[in-house]
Design a protein that fits this description.
This protein has about 600 residues and is α/β, with parallel strands linked by helices. Helix content is about 35%, strand content about 25%. Bound molecules: fructose -6-phosphate. Fructose -6-phosphate (F6R) binds near residues 352 and 601.
Amino acid sequence: MCGIVGYLGKQKAVPILLTSLQRESYRGYDSAGLVVFESGQTVCLKAVGKLEKLEHKINGHQRLTGGLGLGHVRWATHGGVSEANAHPHTDCRENIWLVHNGIIENYAELKEILKKEGHIFRSETDTEVLSHLIEKFFQGNLEEAVRKALRLVRGAYALAIVSREDPDKIVLARLSSPLLIGISDRGEYLVASDANALIPHAKKVVNMDDNEIAVLTRHDLLVLKEKQPENLELEAEDAQKKGYPHFMLKEIMEQSDTVENAIRGRLLVNHGAAQLGGLESVKEKLREIEMINIVACGTAFHAGMVGEYMLEEYAGIPTNVDLASEFRYRKPILDGKAAILAISQSGETADTLAALKEAKRKGALSLGIVNVVGSSLSRETAAGVYNRAGAEIGVASTKAFTSQLTILALLTLYLGRQRDLSVVMGQRVTKELKLLPDLVKRVLTLDSQIKKLVEKYKDYDDFLYIGRKYNYPIALEGALKLKEISYVHAEGYGAGEMKHGTLALIDENFPTMVIAPTDSVYEKTVSNIEEIKARKGPIIAIATEGNEAIKNLVQDVIYVPKTLEMLTPVLSVIPLQLFAYHMGVVRGCDVDKPRNLAKSVTVE
Ligand code: F6R
């Protein structure tokens, strides 16, 4: 949450900061601000609302030519949405200026002490204590003051700090929130929370580690632990909409390619197996694993739930899946025979990271399924598999989800073939996996049918989503997508659980989306359809092509192609993503940046 950017070089900082902020605007969009050093003076501009509001202010301002600056997009945690609470924050003398991503947990006690010492606060944020704390220790050398101040701080931070009295320098610090330094061909430095914000200027990147402090000057980059810059491997196109009206639609439509990318080079069709280079180093340890604990949040958690069914059914490994935010605070029983598998698109989700660290501490083997290369999770795990899904910019996770499901199927094959999964059964899975990208392509052609369906259902205020077994998590995911994108109330439920309470909601004003592929639990799901029908609830079914009979039971059917039961979620979720997308658009919502949310939840 929150995006920070910085620039130090010979060009004007403002346009570069704005481009970088634009690329990070998915991280927070309730206010934005920047500070630029302008011939010995500091100019700080802030605006409530999206980045355009700040751009508007900048346009109305004097020409800003300084070559050093910091910028920020905010997702409010402490203190409401206001200019005073927007970053950058400063100290009493307006010497120290900083932008922050994370949470300072002991801010209240620090604030009390600083207030008693005479510091005057201008905002309600946790961040502002940092500027005053650094002021307290500042004696002409910024990095020294930062180092002393951070010793007193508890929490998470990615920080970029500048000082009027120690000029031409940006000091950076990181603990549990991502922070990257980009270096251009011309020796300019850029700072960002996300590698996407470094393109198109930077060619090399330094990914800061926890507890590091870095000092950028006009001549040098000093990280207080020697590090070699790596090549920045991101395509500029990744962050463009490519003609689509929204990133979300673009990313939904990319899913045939992203599923293909997840599989490419990883299937051994003849052997009915998978090869996963990222697991090679722990291959032998994986043979010994007797239990897998999956931890994740939100959409990634739903992928983990599908993974639980896959791993137990095909690999025969007892598997638990937990919300990372719960796992980290309970007392999981783990030992050297347990593996922890963290699933995360961003690789920066604070709860998932903390859950992983807790399990590592207990001796579990740490594994990850992560999309963002070089992210904190990818560096924290002993081994893992990258999604290769490309940048996901829309706040709602779509292509990362189907990619996670695909990788989980590959992982199941990999672990299954180390155990009792027969070559014949393995071959069935590999063959079906190979067909999957083409089947996804077919499902994506349903877009116009779903858009029409949304016209029919757009005025309903409540929806129920139900499914069983592999598609129970898909019911949860479909409901989550609808809630976050269109702000329509939706409940995701196990179809078999309905009669234990939820059925009471059903009447002619409460439609149900039933995920009912022709699978091992189809007949059970049909019974649930009958129960809803008897109570006059409108029903939309996601069914398998060829199932004509279901038309007699429900109002509307969306057909998806047949595939192996364990892979049905990859196909059944896509119509639900499209349904949520079109509902959001038709109801006038900002689908790429839903209210109150932001991508990459780096706070607890
Ligand atoms: C919902 C969504 C979130 C994320 C969750 C975890 O559409 O995007 O629920 O799935 O915040 O994020 P990652 O996968 O980055 O750990």
